[in-house]
Design goal:
The protein has 198 residues and is mainly α. The protein has 2 domains: 126 residues, Rna Polymerase Sigma Factor, Chain: A (Orthogonal Bundle), CATH 1.10.1740.10; 65 residues, Arc Repressor Mutant, subunit A. The chain is built from 11 helices and no strands. Helix 5 crosses helix 10, helix 9 packs across helix 11 and helix 10 crosses helix 11.
């Protein structure tokens, strides 16, 4: 996992903590046992190694800044899953705003959209890992899910977390987890079954 190694190097290269900052050593000790799980989760959410590295680095930075708020009501890994999920959703919202602004600028400047389909498809080294985890059809269907649904599917079905843990992690009621999961599965079923209607 070269990407996770680079994230670790980024953490180590960060400036030393000031006296009013959380205990970096305690944070890293609690992080160590769940680091690889968090890396896999970030990768499943982001779907590309570089994006997963950015997500994990941002999530770890936010987790470190918020470490003083960790109360131990849940496992540290569960708490970090929540931090990572929130970070991912925030990054998605920001990216969507940038894409909208950029698309508007392009349309205004160019008078339309001209895209060469061949330039849009490129070799993706991470695709091999995803093919091992999900088929191409499943990955395409997962990509089509709204972020809130995809997070629930990844946590409940891929990471095999209990619904209560998923609810705590996402900060929603268990009923919301169940309904999102039901809707996400229905969308996935429709996308993966020829002739099936959602």
């Amino acid at each position: 996992m070269e990407g996770s190694y680079r994230v670790r190097l980024r953490m180590r290269a960060a400036p030393a903590a000031r006296t009013d900052e959380p205990d970096r050593e305690a944070f890293e000790q609690m992080l160590e046992p769940c680091f690889e799980r968090l890396w896999r989760y970030a990768y499943r959410l982001a779907r590309h190694a570089e994006d997963a590295e950015d997500l994990l680095a941002e999530g770890l930075a936010e987790g470190y800044r918020s470490f003083g708020a960790y109360r131990g009501d849940s496992s540290f890994a569960t708490w970090m899953y929540r931090v990572l999920t929130t970070t991912w959703l925030d990054m998605r919202r920001k990216a969507a705003r940038r894409r909208t602004d950029s698309l508007d600028e392009i349309i205004e400047r160019e008078g339309g959209i001209r895209a060469d389909p061949a330039s849009l498809s490129h070799a993706d080294p991470e695709a091999a890992l995803l093919r091992d985890t999900f088929s191409e059809d499943v990955e395409r269907a997962m990509s089509g899910l709204p972020p809130e649904y995809r997070a629930v599917v990844v946590l409940a079905d891929v990471e095999e977390m209990d619904y209560r843990d998923v609810a705590r992690l996402l900060g929603v009621p268990v009923g919301t987890v169940r309904s999102r999961l039901h809707r996400a599965r229905r969308i996935l079923r429709a996308a993966l079954t020829p002739g099936h209607k959602a």
